[in-house]
Design a protein that fits this description.
By secondary structure, this protein is mainly alpha-helical. It has one domain. 79% of the residues lie in helices and 0% in strands. Helix 1 runs antiparallel to helix 2 and helix 1 packs parallel to helix 3. The longest helix has 24 residues. It is flat, with a radius of gyration of 14 Å.
């Protein structure tokens, strides 16, 4: 079980680093995140699905999308908890 915990911790750090780079406007951050998801990151964790959504919305906001900004500010805070519950019902890990 310790191996699972270590893997989850490492995965959380990789995801956090990707989101940090995206939030700073790194033009390659989305590609780096895609590469990570294609190779190393297991996809059974809820936080990964949430991170992908947040990363895509962040990049859309950075590119000037008013719709994405509205979603980020108004819709996502209400939608996120419901999505987490739905993913939990599907059996993904917290």
């Amino acid at each position: 079980m310790e191996g699972d915990s270590n893997q989850e911790e490492m995965t959380r750090q990789v995801v956090a680093d990707c989101l940090k780079a995206i939030s700073k406007g790194d033009p390659d951050a989305g590609l780096v995140m895609a590469h990570q998801f294609l190779s190393d990151i297991p996809n059974e964790y809820i936080f990964i699905s949430i991170a992908v959504i947040e990363a895509l919305v962040m990049q859309s906001v950075q590119l000037g999308s008013e719709s994405a900004k509205n979603f980020q500010d108004n819709t996502w805070p209400k939608m996120k908890p419901a999505l987490i519950k739905r993913l939990e019902r599907r059996g993904l890990k917290g």
